[in-house]
Amino acid sequence: MQNTARTLHRALFCAGLLAATLSAGPTRAAPPDPIVGVWEQVDEDGDVGALIALKERGGTIEGVIVKLFPAPGEPPNPVCSACLGALHNAPLLGLTVVDGLRRTKERYEGGSILDPDTGETYQLTAVLAAGNRSLQVHAYRGVSLLGRTQQWRRAANQPRS
After folding, report:
1. Is 54 exposed, middle or buried (0-12, 13-18, 19+ CB in 10 A)?
2. pTM of this prediction?
3. Keywords for this entry (predicted)?
4. 161 residues of the chain, pLDDT tens digit each
5. Cβ(119)–Cβ(110) below 8 Å
């Protein structure tokens, strides 16, 4: 009889545990950060030079060149000839150009951006605009006022988040 009571107790415990697990419903992953996605890097003339994929990695945002749009006469597979160290002559396609960007209340900051034309790295802030369809990317050294801002556009068929 004691064995039967234990078995019944275990069965009820397992049934209760199963019911609690099933009633909790499926767990949902946190929605992606609104900055995550593919962005068109637009130059001063309004031409798209590259597509940059921004993604979360280790609690920060990083950006990799996923497509290039070389101007006529430019090499089809350019390398970072101006970069130093391990990045010297690294192919631009697949190159990490944004690193360490962190979200604050109204913007992203604390990151860096690599200019493959010069091999220089700059401090970076970014602000989403136009319903998350535009990204104001501001690169600077030391004093933010002395920097330069580009407007990047979310690439076609990308969610707004």
Report:
1. buried
2. 0.77
3. Signal
4. 555 544 444 544 444 433 443 444 455 555 678 999 999 999 888 899 999 999 999 999 999 999 999 989 999 899 999 999 999 999 999 999 999 999 998 899 999 999 999 999 999 999 999 999 999 999 999 888 889 999 999 998 765 55
5. no
Per the listing, tokens 């004093």 go with 143
For residue 16, which phi and psi values (nearest 5 degrees)?
-65, -40
* Calpha distance 21→38 (Å, rounded): 37
Rounded Cα gap, residues 61 and 102, in angstroms: 6
